[in-house]
Amino acid sequence: MAYATPTRERRVLKAGHSSIAVTLPKPWAEAMNLRPGDLVVFDQNDDGTLYLRPAPGPLIAAPGLPYLVEAHSFDTPGLLERLVVGAYRVGHDSIEIRTQVALGPERIEELQQAARRLLGVSVVAQEPNRVLLQNFIDPSKYGLPQLVQRMKMILVALIEESETLVRKGTRSRRLTSINEETNRVLALLVRQLFLASRDWSLARRIGSPDPRQLLEWRVVVHSLEELGGLVGEAARDLHEGAPAEIVKDPSIPPLLARLKECLANVVEALVHPSLPAAMEACAESGLLAEAARTAARQLKSRARKGGVHTAMIAVQRSASCLSLLAQLALDRAVSGTPGTVLRPTN
Q: Rounded to two decimals, what is the model's pTM?
């Protein structure tokens, strides 16, 4: 989305008896969520220029210090992994776990598994009462458009795996690994958004020239997260359903093929804004959603408790999610042009 660039010149004003002041551009202050009374930090460079940024909030750890999770013990399965994932997603590089009671083998394996499920994270120190995880990813190397394209490729692979399940009526050996890759890339996308929201220069480097564009990317990432869950749900339903019933049902294969094509077109319209492409993606996703609704209603009663029907509902909801992304792509395309002329086609 395009925004007017504030003027680079600001008049120096008198403030009090002996001080001077310069106002901050309103768009930047709003993007940084600054309010009267908030603190900002100045860093002076050797050439006399000043670097200005909002002061870290009280809940943000100082650079270089690990995010510390301390407790008497951790007995609830899954809690440690979720804490590590949460700290990673909000931008922490070092995550330290400390306990008074030594961590058992199950909790150690849980932390090792959490590291494996996050891109760039490794366990760098392990003691009976302390584990340290470290992220080694340089955020400036992962642009938002590139990560969205990566998500598209993973989701296409997931749909193709579903097509194989329908065509052959066999169980999938790749479903778990594809779903894990989906979660890894989504976690990195969320992390990039959090980091960019606190660093304007990073936001520009990874594909958001104006910080307010991060609101758009947040909607995109949230929709991709929902879409990943729905496509994964459809694949699991087909994987766990009765193979004989799935193979002979004619309604799923054409919908999966259309879902895959629509996904590719919507992401292309998002990453490379184009009004004709966005309009086509909007129309295509709407037709796909309607086709999925019709197919779900027409399923025979024998399939209503099986994998085919539940997979069909997931495909229908996936199409609705793609429709939302297509509408956002259309908004982005419109905002980037002063106007357009639609010519009728013969």
A: 0.78
